[in-house]
Amino acid sequence: MPEGPSILILKEAAMQFKGQKVVAASCNNGAIDAALLIHQTITDIKSWGKHFLICFPSLTVRVHMMMFGSYRINSHTEKPARLHLLFENGDELNFYASQLKLIDEPLDEIYDWSADVMSPTWDGKKAIKKMKDIPGLLACDALMNQNLFAGVGNIIKNEVLFRTQIHPESLMSALPPKKLKEFIAETISYSFEFLEQKKAGKLKKNWKAYNKKICPRDETPFIKRDTGKSHRTSFYCELCMKKYS
């Protein structure tokens, strides 16, 4: 599943379509009426967490690539695209295996931009306040909660918890203030590190915990287990990652 940094890379690449008019459009599963997009001009390209947003004058197309989604810019596969957009100059934008939704409300009424870990309006104090309103919240679930940390996925979750030495099943309410501050700072810091490593093609080479078998700090086997209400896989070391409870 593409995480926030990967969607930001897509956003940067797709900015070339801002101001362009759609001359043909199709959706291969009927999730949206693609005909509504024909003769419409893209007014902006936005992102929120894992959501890619194509803005038109009176509506927005939300693209969520889920687990196996992908995209092609100015190229296509033999398989019909979930969403195909063709522009006046012959350029095209294609999404595959993605979830689509049409939004006709103002985006500011739907999205809390300050919850996006890649946004310049990110608000850590607001995130802390939201976490306090969720009893029994575990560290692994906090990071995967898009209302708290929009854009964080399982890679960022595992890398942040390892770097901060926090066991995934730690209670957020039990984290000391200094550790909570470190937890939030590392989440933002690693998200941007992820972005730079992804652009450089060095992301996997720099993983310390995700999909790893041995803890690089203690040289003992990682525990690999689904944790929290999100039931996503965590890789953790029981020697160096403290469980706060």
From TrEMBL:
Annotated Formamidopyrimidine-DNA glycosylase catalytic domain residues: 2-102
Database matches in Gene3D superfamilies: 1.10.8.50, MutM-like, N-terminal
Record bears the keyword Nucleotide-binding: no
Catalytic reaction list: Hydrolysis of DNA containing ring-opened 7-methylguanine residues, releasing 2,6-diamino-4-hydroxy-5-(N-methyl)formamidopyrimidine
InterPro entries: FPG_cat, FPG_N, H2TH_FPG, Ribosomal_uS13-like_H2TH
Source superkingdom: Bacteria
Family according to the record: Belongs to the FPG family.
Name this protein carries in UniProt: Endonuclease
The organism of origin for this protein: Mucilaginibacter gilvus
Organism phylogeny: Bacteria, Pseudomonadati, Bacteroidota, Sphingobacteriia, Sphingobacteriales
